[in-house]
Amino acid sequence: MTTITNNKLTAAQMAVIRRMQAGDRLLFNSMKGNYYFSTSRGYDGVTIPARSLLEKGVIKISEDAPFYTKPMELTAVGIKVKE
Predict the structure, then answer these.
(1) How far is CA 56 from the centre of its chain?
(2) For the segment 12-62, what is each residue's pLDDT rounded down to a tens digit?
(3) HSE on the CB side for 77, CA within 13 Å?
(4) Is the pTM higher than 0.85?
(5) How far apart are CA 8 and CA 3, in angstroms?
(6) DSSP secondary structure of 17-41
(7) CA 7 from centroid of its chain's CA atoms
(8) Less packed terminus of the chain by CB within 10 Å, N or C?
């Protein structure tokens, strides 16, 4: 189980992360020069800082998904948000 410390994540972002499931598709978009992803399910239109979550091992991208080019498959790892 991976634990995320609530530093710089909004309540909406934490709620999105809690509801993530394996197979969720992430859509690439760029905001303010940083890379973000929003799920195709919408999750209230919330974007998450996927790059830092990837680095922390909170989310994983399937190996056959082209990074930064097409919708990507999210692989669930145990996620627990520490508030």
Answers:
(1) 11
(2) 777 777 777 666 666 555 554 445 555 555 555 666 777 777 777 776 665
(3) 14
(4) no
(5) 14
(6) HHH--TT-EEEEEEETTEEEEEETT
(7) 15
(8) N
